[in-house]
Amino acid sequence: MRSNQFDLVVVGAGIAGLVAAAVAAQRGRRVAVASSGPGSFVFGAGTVEARSLDAATPGLDEAFAFFHQFSGEAGVPFLGGCGVTHLIPTMLGSFQVASMAPFTLWNADPHEATDVAVVGVRGMTSINAKFIAERLNTAVAALSCRAQYRAVEIELPPTVGTFPSALQFANRYDQDATFREQLRAQLTPLAHQAEALIVPGVLGLQCGRTEFAQLECELGAQLCELPTLPPSVPGLRLYHHWEARLQRLGVEMYTGFPIARLECDSGRCVAVWLETPARPLRLEAATVILATGPFSWLLLGNEVVGYNRQMQPVDAQGAPLVDNVYVAGTMLRGAGDVRGLQGGNALAILTGYVSGAYAAGEARFWPLPESLGAAGVQYA
Amino acid sequence: MLFALCRVTGRRMRPPSLATPLPNHDSSTITIGPRADDVRASLQLDRRGSLLCTAFIPFLVQQNRRPERDARKSRAASCMKKTAELSQGGEMEKTQVVIIGGGATGAGILWDLARRGIDAVLLEQGDLANGATGRCHGLLHSGGRYVVKDAAAAQECVAENRILKRIAPHCVHDTGGLFVECAPDDPAFWEQWWQACHKVGLETERLTANEARDLEPNLPDDIVGAFTCPDAHVDVFQLTLSNAAAAVAKGQRCKTYCQVEAIEAEGGRLRRVRYRDMQSGEVSEIACEVAINAAGGWAEQVAKLAGVHVPVRCDKGTLLIMNHRLSTRVVNRCRKPGDADILVPAGPVCILGTSSITVPGPEGLTVEQEEIDHLIKLGAELVPALQEARVLRIFCGVRPLYVPPAATGSGGREISRGFALLDHQETMAGFLSIVGGKLTTYRLMAQAVCDLVAQKLAIQAECTTAQTPLRAPHEAQALRRAQQLLPQPVAEKADRRLGPRLAQIVSAIEQRPELAEVVCECELVTRAELEYVLGAESPLPARTIGDVGRRTRLGFGPCQGTFCGYKAMLTGYEMGRWTAEAAASEFERYLDERWKGQSWIHSGKQVEQLYLSHDLFGVSMNFHGAAAGDVDTESR
């Protein structure tokens, strides 16, 4: 096979895209992932909401099982599972209800911890620990939990001439052992006085399960990470680990290049063209999976009006335009009502898995659930 | 003694000079000490305008040799009146004039009265510029739009245009304007327009098509030519706030989020106004001699409180804000006024408008998709790039048009844009209404109102607002200090917005370097400025996050407050303005308002931006949104 020939080209490196690539790679296919950036990982930590998909949805169990396994192998396991409901504090002092979340976000369910310190960093104005603690206390009163939150502050030296941000601290955590020491030194006295510490996302992109557990051990308290506004450090950490794992599986990553177009011929998509500098790059593909988010339907041209239950884009008559392209992730939801946004990550895991499996020659058929409005959906 | 009496009853009471701004009035500035009752009695003015002096004479003897005694007397008179009120110890506030409505007109009246030494309180149910003032193009008319149909209105615009550029240069961006001769339009109208401009003294030059396109490359290829004109953009919020802030500096009171509930009279004469603070719920009364209904689209409702009928036709106009400037000048279409024929560059964005649709009232306004498509289609005939431009926000406002009893059911644009000053003395002496008009002539409207008020109060004081700058000029020194602490564009924007207040912000940053952080990256607002507008020292403190936006432009850029609104909320919390729950509720309200203006946009990048905001706060944070807030933990 020539160097630019692939069994599968995945466009889009969000959760759906990377899951699809992982499935196909694990089943022995030659895979490339092309994307402009880290996709949905910049936005959030990958928390999967509890109320999104029906447990009986075809393929869901298998998809989630794969997801757990793959994430664990990548060093960033998810905790929880289908049917679990777990509360995760947010930086606005509310609780997100999750069935699964990365391990760094798991340890502050108010039903489980009682005395929690919310750690703010002086000068880092993207979160306010006092605000969070005050609001969380109000929220738990309504839930009749015994958990109590209080705000504490640490001081971390910012890079000279800048204003401290979570991502800046996270990068320094990765690069600078002195910085890690300083953080640990600041957290140690706080850890003595509380059962759990909620810290903003500063624990570095390279911090995997082992390092995290080690830090908890040294501090003698449970740690929970608080995702800040985008760019999300926990999200980028997932991306970093998954990318490494995918590369170990032989997946080629073409990151930073927007897709220019799909080259189609006689009812098949034969190649994906990327806008690389100087001249476009052509990746030949036996199968293409598009997981480029809700606003990217224009890629498929004007004839596409929706997709079928096999996740293939279809025209007004319901016939697939090409037979080797699948659509996965929130792209399936399109730019519809902004209020119906929940469950995006669950949808991404399911459809990423299913489309990746199809691309790898999966014989079984897992029809998309009715609730997605499949078959002839119109998207703006 | 008689001689001294004549001095006091002198024909003129010159208002205090502007050279030294008045200190905020409190009782410690009064050193002479007639008893409060005597002072009030002695200041009573009878209808002929002469001062009845009884216990006033000791004061006279001390004061009458000083050179600026007239100025001091009127200032002292005002001071003393206030002291009398304060030292009364009673519950009720007092003033001479209550102004209902805090748009440009109301704020302009507050300032004009301040200049004339007349005490006034402004009551506004929302934030300043809540109504038509805050929902228009922000066009400082040259008069070209009215010159053919309404020469009088055009002439007013010509004069006021010059005046506002002189007194409020910090609010006006003198972009200049063009009236474009578009291929489909009527050449006879262009001739008419040209002649009419000369008649009213509107400066204009005729350009060829090439010359016009050299100036504005985004004009269509097939234009025939264009006329220049002195149109400009005015920041409506800064203009209103400047009037109010200048008035407050002179001792006037300005209360936002205070809705008038009752206007009470005794014996056919206005006595007091009752209002409710919409945030605290507190109800207060204020005794006054004159009340001015400057409530714009709500003028009819307010008049009803006084038992007066003021028919106001609410004419809705929808405007689109595009994400970047498509022209450097105001671009008008040279034809009979119609929809979508004005494009105004407004800072980093441009505003396209507008429509004219009669609506039942000033609230509950919605925008239909057809209206938006219609506006863009028409606008694209003037500037074709509008078809592809990113719509940032859509909003609508209501033109409050006064319908004189004689007018028949004519359309919104046919009713004169002139204003009407109504004296309701038959029903309630002391109650006035000012209706109609337009932003460009707000100062003139205020002048007419204040002339009448002065006459009613038998105070002789001329209008000086046309000659008086609204704000002292900036200090170059403060700008230099700012440039050392902040990136150049940030310093420049702060300088323009803050003017003489920049020094204060710079000092704050020098003391606390963390205040140099840029909180709103789209509009370059520093944390120092944010704390200033939220703080108590600000003349018109922000009471909501939206207020912060109007004072600093925070949240006006592409993110529409998603990130900076959150930071503003935290800052207000940190400063103790709100508890955590109150701050969260306030942020929810702010998000709703920001989302609303984007929800009508159906295509383009802004749809993604809105999606991001909903996804972040509604889903990821489970904070605010249709399904947010639910923490039901029943297992499935």
Describe the overall structure:
With 380 residues, chain A is an alpha/beta fold. Chain A has helices at residues 15-26, 60-73, 129-143, 166-175, 177-192, 209-219, 233-248, 344-359, and strands at residues 5-11, 31-35, 48-49, 78-80, 86-89, 95-102, 115-121, 148-154, 196-200, 222-226, 252-255, 259-265, 268-274, 281-290, 306-307, 313-314, 325-327. The radius of gyration of chain A is 22 Å and the shape is globular. Chain B is α+β, with helices and mostly antiparallel strands and 636 residues long. Chain B is built from 20 helices and 24 strands. In chain B, strands 6, 7, 8, 15, 16, 17, 18, 19 and 20 form a nine-stranded mixed beta sheet that branches. In chain B, helix 2 packs across helix 4 (69-87). The A-B interface holds A 43-44, 47, 49-51, 55, 83-85, 87, 90-97, 123, 125-126, 128, 130-131, 134-135, 138-139, 143, 163, 227, 229-230, 294-295, 335, 338-342, 344, 380 and B 514, 517, 519, 527, 563, 566-567, 570, 573-574, 579-581, 583-584, 599, 602-603, 607-608, 610-612, 614-623, 625-636.
What structural keywords apply?
heterodimer, A: 380 residues, alpha/beta, 8 helices, 29% helix, globular, B: 636 residues, nine-stranded mixed β-sheet, six-stranded mixed β-sheet, disordered N terminus
Please report the number of helical segments of chain B: 20
Classify the helix fraction of chain A into a percent range. 25-40%
The end-to-end distance of chain B, rounded to whole angstroms, is 95 Å
The helical percent of chain B reads 25-40%
Strand content of chain A: 15-25%
Mean pLDDT score of chain B: 85
